[in-house]
Amino acid sequence: MPTTEQPKWAPQQRPRHNGRVFRYVPHHATQRDPDQAAVDGTHAQREGGRWNPPGSFPVLYTSCTEAVAIANLRRRYRGSPFQPWELDESDQPDLYDLDVDQDRLVDALSDIGLDGIGLPPTYPDHVGHGVTQPIGARLHGETYAGVWCRSAADRTGEEIALFVNEGHAATPTVAGSARRLWEWFPVPDEWKPS
């Protein structure tokens, strides 16, 4: 009987990240406490994401550049009958700049790092959440702070998924005020407020 080889497990850590990341949040979610909403990972805890199954643990999904945040929002609305600027203003995403100073981030950027967590060098191509969620859960269980990974929305970009709210990762600091959709996303001129 043939045996199935178990994927290699040797997570590699990236050097400490000390810099800015970006995250968008629906405007209505930020009305009571904007700074708290910007760093709250409970939505991803409920709904799940690339590195955590639904109902599991809080994750703060961030983009390492503003261009990656734009690419992520475009990807989210690809194939949709409407665009983000057509949403009610309270549902349009605000962009937050967050300062992160974090070590213990697992490498899902380099081929060696991907191999260490059982992913192919072609990641994220043809690698769904059904593959990455158990990996993220295992890394969370091993108390890593999160995953520094290639962006599925922008192949040249990077993202960081922080395992927040349970002491794994430090909570980022909000830098400045949120920017409304038309201030950071390429909204057509006719949709911008006058």
Gist of the model:
This protein is an alpha+beta fold and 194 residues long. Helix content is 23%, strand content 21%.
Main features:
194 residues; alpha+beta; 4-stranded mixed beta sheet; 3-stranded antiparallel beta sheet; 6 helices; 7 strands; 23% helix; globular
3D structure, described in words:
The chain is α+β, with helices and mostly antiparallel strands and 194 residues long. It has one domain (17-184). Helix content is 23%, strand content 21%. It has 6 helices and 7 strands. The chain has helices at 34-38, 42-47, 66-76, 111-116, 129-141, 181-184; strands spanning 17-26, 60-63, 93-102, 105-108, 146-150, 158-162, 173-174. The strands form 2 sheets. A 4-stranded mixed beta sheet has the order 2-6-5-4. A 3-stranded antiparallel beta sheet has the order 1-3-7. The termini are far apart. The relative contact order is 0.25. The mean pLDDT is 94.
**N-to-C SSE series?**
EHHEHEEHHEEEH
The neighbouring-strand order within the major sheet is 2-6-5-4
Number of domains: 1
Q: Work out the radius of gyration.
A: 17 Å
Helix content: 10-25%
Number of strands: 7
Alpha-carbon distance between the two ends: 70 Å
Task: List unreliable stretches of 5+ residues.
Answer: none
Give the percentage of residues in beta strands. 15-25%
Q: Based on CA inertia axes, which overall geometry fits?
A: globular
Mean pLDDT metric: 94
Please identify the structural class as seen in this structure: alpha+beta
For the sheet with most strands, the description reads: 4 strands, mixed
Q: What is the tally of helical segments?
A: 6
